Amino acid sequence: MQHRTMALVLAFAPLALSAQGTLVAGNKAANTATLVNLTTGKITATLKTGVGPHESAISPDGKWAVITDYGTAGSPGNSLTVIDIAKATVAKTISLGKYRQPHGIAFLPGGTTAAVTVEANQAVLLVDVAAGTVTKEIPTAQAGTHMIAVRGDGKMGYTSNIRSGTITEINFATGATRSLEVAPQAEGIAVTADGKEVWVGSNSAATISVVDVASWKVVATLDQGERPYRVELSRDGSLAVAALTQRGKIRLIETATRKEIGMLETPAGAQPVGMAFSADGKKLYVACQGSNAILEFDMASRRAARTFGTGQGPDGVAIGK
């Protein structure tokens, strides 16, 4: 069975490098990652990671996926699991040494460097994935630096800092930062590709704050009725989506008007969490930790098109672009 699986992976290696060929999900309760070939609709591999894999990122060239090994409350993690997508194998594990609770992750342009939040250290790390080394530490001085979103040109990043209720802007080249109070328990975060707006969810206030980056102010507060666990933006910036985990729905928001334009429905008990748009914006992939599955939504019909089984507790999901 193992030889047959590897043959399938290698046969479809070119698809793994295409714009929408591969999906990776970290299964935080199973300590595994699931790889899905979106062209064939088949699971290509289930791979062991470190303890508590949370967020996922795929390099711009489609060669590597990196999973943050967050650990557990009693035993914080300090590693990244690096996956060779074409081979569907774990290539290596990067030790972060003194840096604990890695969580949010995003690749910068070029595909070599990943920006990683380390919650316990209140910082963002720049990690050379190929070399397996930390090249820079950028302190946020904010409690609970959790998620990260990166501007389209890769020059600026934005973290959500849960316990401080703030976001932090980071200049990756200079290490300069500035922080802004937005709402209590800020977590889900996204930035428009042009970097003009940051959208950030509040767990306790059950809102999404829209931050105008130029004025560095909250210019709108959108009531969600419950915690918007994750917030994502389409690549063209026209659509925002919010995962309403308790209700099992995905709210669709037109960014220009900041008005709801619909809902995506998930099956009872699905508990939608992490989300990722396809490169063309026609599909939305949603990790459902309650049903141990990834749902593929067709955005034109607003219906679930396919379901992919995962390990227990899928959370962060990434797609090759």
Description:
With 321 residues, the protein is mainly β. It has a domain at 1-139: 7 Propeller (Methylamine Dehydrogenase, Chain H). Helices cover 4% and strands 55% of the residues. It has a 4-stranded antiparallel sheet. Strands 4-5-6-7 form a 4-stranded antiparallel sheet, with no helix packed on it. It is globular and about 45 Å long.
Biggest sheet strand order reads 3-2-1-28
In sequence order, what are the helices and strands, one letter per element? HHEEEEEEEEEEEEEEEEEEEEEEEEEEEE
**Could you describe the largest sheet, including whether it forms a barrel?**
4 strands, antiparallel
Q: In CATH terms, what is the architecture of one domain?
A: 7 Propeller
Topology:
Layout: H1 2-11, H2 13-16, E1 22-27, E2 32-37, E3 42-48, E4 53-58, E5 64-71, E6 76-84, E7 89-95, E8 102-107, E9 113-118, E10 123-128, E11 133-139, E12 145-150, E13 156-161, E14 166-171, E15 177-181, E16 186-191, E17 197-202, E18 207-212, E19 217-223, E20 228-233, E21 239-244, E22 249-254, E23 259-265, E24 272-277, E25 283-288, E26 293-298, E27 303-309, E28 314-319
Antiparallel strand pairs: 1-2, 1-28, 2-3, 4-5, 5-6, 6-7, 8-9, 9-10, 10-11, 12-13, 13-14, 14-15, 16-17, 17-18, 18-19, 20-21, 21-22, 22-23, 24-25, 25-26, 26-27
